[in-house]
Amino acid sequence: MTRYAMLIDLNTCVGCNACMAACAIENQTPVWKNVWRTYVHDQEIGIGDDVRRRFFPRLCNHCENPPCLTVCPTGATYQRADGLVLIDDNLCMGCGACEMACPYRARYELTYTDIREGKVFYGNLRRTSPGYDKCNFCAQRIDAGRKPACVETCVGEARLFGDLDDPQDYVAKMAASGIAQPLMPQLGTRPHVYYINEMKRDV
Amino acid sequence: MEVNVTYETQHLWTTWFAVYLYLGGLGAATMTITFLTDMYLKSHKTLAIWGALTGLIMVGGGSALLFIHLANHAAVVHVLNPLAIFFKPDAWIAWGTQFISWMMIASLLYVLPYMIESPIIANLPFISSVLKTRVVCGLGSMAGSGNIHKILGIFSATSGLGVAVYTGLLLQSFPAVALWNNPGVPILFTVSAFSTACALLILVMHIFMGRDEKDTLLRGLYERADLLLLATELLVVFLFYMYLTRGSISARVSAELLFHDLGWLLGFIGLGLVTPFLLELRSVLSLGHGQGQTHLPTVAAAVFVLIGGFLLRDYFMAAGIYVYPT
Questions:
Q1: Beta bridge mates, A41
Q2: Segment B86-97, tens digit of pLDDT
Q3: How far, in Å, are B276, B288, B295 from residue B283 at the CA level?
Q4: Which of B309, B300, B307, B310 is nearest to B278 (CA)?
């Protein structure tokens, strides 16, 4: 079995936002309204003179126990055997329950206007109906044997993609070791995006 | 992983959604109460017609509000499909949609024989001509026959209960928000739905049924039921206060939002719960029911309960706190 997961190392993310750009072009996201499937938060942490900058990439966590899936009334949100949580555009009626249920703010709405603007912006827009959208780990690329666009483009190798069920996989090892940890595990969602936190260091 | 967090309310399901939850719960509970009254307490065709029409208008209006806010209107057909509850038994919206749909159909059939007989309905333009058509008359006589009528009534009442519970279960299914993700929400929303329904019926009976002396017992019964429901609601709100002020970060911020807000304290708890509770208690204890006494306190209590029911849902939607990692 394969269970895909992403590892994000906050020590090596330089905040270049290339992942956002690559994702937007690959997945035709509505960038004109500053909405992205993956987003890099740029933060200043600390007080007084002891302030540092941290870049914190975010995306859908492809939870093993996704609350967005259980609340979806039409079955538009579904989970593949390899762990990817995807949306069937044709089934999604855009009620917003998935956005309300997601504790990671990974979902966004695509309106009729977005579809019209998307056709102008991207030329050949693949999505034809409004509804909800989110990161799909670039399922179309994974199925073609490639890595997600954000992973492939990351200059600092801050993003790595792997298989949690492969004991030799680096991502699986980091997740199993506890060095890499998911966000808000207390919610029981069992996310498949793991983070290596910044090492404590003097500024 | 240790990260910074931000506390945020949501801006997706706002007041319009509170209206949907309010109308859905109130309409469904009104239907349930009137049908159970008609079947088991006192045969009351006028009240049953009132209950069904009120329920239909409110639940229909609430559903229309939800429909307007859908991103993809054409895809709604997937949730209207009765098989949706088999494909998605874990999704409360799927159950709610089915409860609402079947409740509306069964309730209309339940009161159809009454509407055909009713002199008031028979004089309404357009509706009277529809009721006289062969198909409708046939449906009416079929729905009005003994067991079928009772089955329709029980089915509508059960579905109505389902809708009232669903409005709370829907919020309960969002794990990130402590205010919503607990078993108190469906209880509070169900109790509130039935309390507001009692208030609405008291109001309807006072204003539109001409204080019929034959209904005095029924009005008193609704008042007593509402009194108990208000007391239960006050208890549940107190339990929420205890849970929220001693809970997670999300719960504590929600508690701050709610219990430091005059709209919640004076509007919902003061005006919507405590005041009608005291007014109804006074009425039930017959302290103000002497000869020539006004019914104003009873009517005012009912109006306050109805206002409180909406405030509860509006504040609940507004005070749900997400704790986002940043």
A1: A56
A2: 999 999 999 999
A3: 10, 6, 9
A4: B300
CATH 1.20.1630.10 fits B5-325, yes or no: yes
- Is A26 touching B (CB cutoff 8 A)? no
Given a contact cutoff of 8 angstroms between Cβ atoms, the answer to whether B220 and B284 are in contact is: yes
Name the residue among B173, B127, B312, B240 with its Cα closest to residue A189: B173
CA distance A7 to chain B (A): 13
Please give the Cα distance from A176 to A173 (Å, whole number): 5
Task: Give contacts of A58 with chain B, Cβ < 8 Å.
Answer: 325
DSSP secondary structure string for all residues of B155-190: HHHHHHHHHHHHHHHHHHT-TT-TTTSSTHHHHHHH
Summarize pLDDT for B22-76 with one digit per residue, the tens.
Answer: 999 999 999 999 999 999 999 999 999 988 998 999 999 999 999 999 999 999 9
Chain A's closest residue to B317, CA to CA, is A100
Contact B123, B133 (CB under 8 A): no
Closest CA to B179 of B240, B227, B220, B270: B240
As to burial, measured by CB atoms within 10 angstroms (0-12 exposed, 13-18 middle, 19+ buried), residue A199 is exposed
Prediction ipTM score = 0.90
- Percent of chain B as helix, strand, coil, to the nearest 5: 75, 0, 20
Residue type at B159? S
Report CA-CA distances (Å) from B319 to B54, B82, B240, B310. Answer: 29, 34, 13, 14
- Spatial CA neighbour of A84 closest among A2, A201, A156: A2
User: Would you list the domain boundaries of chain B?
Assistant: 5-325
CB B209 within 8 A of CB B222: no
Residue B194 tokens read as 């039935």
Kindly report the CATH number that applies to the domain delimited by A4-196.
Answer: 3.30.70.20
